């Protein structure tokens, strides 16, 4: 199931759809992340983040995620906590990538 990260909604999904895999909506995640990045850096951060969703190998996703997290930590510290706390968001869909 894909949704935004509203706490009430995620709690309801967990309670009502037990065993369901949850993934945060990419659009909402990216909007929230970019709100912590100055305008001048938003295109670069958006491109780096969007790359996570086209990489298919789990180990490559994690490696790219770590590189982007480190870049955010150095260049945009206010965005780094949000980014590092949400590593599961991109990786949650990995088991389904090879399914039709």
Notes on the protein architecture:
- A two-stranded parallel sheet has the order 1-2.
- It contains six helices and two strands, in the order E-H-E-H-H-H-H-H.
- It has one domain.
- The chain is mainly α.
- The radius of gyration is 14 Å and the shape is globular.
- Helix 3 runs antiparallel to helix 4.
**Unreliably modeled segments:** 96-100
Reported for the largest beta sheet, the result is: 2 strands, parallel
* Percentage of residues in DSSP E strands: under 5%
Number of domains: 1
Radius of gyration: 14 Å
Order of helices and strands, N to C? EHEHHHHH
Q: Helix- and strand-based class? A: mainly alpha
Main sheet: strand order: 1-2
Q: How does the overall form come out from the CA principal axes?
A: globular
Count every beta strand, where a strand is a DSSP E run of 2 or more residues.
Answer: 2
Percent helix among the residues? 55-70%
Measure the end-to-end span. Answer: 17 Å
Tally of contiguous helical segments:
6
> Residue-averaged pLDDT, rounded?
78
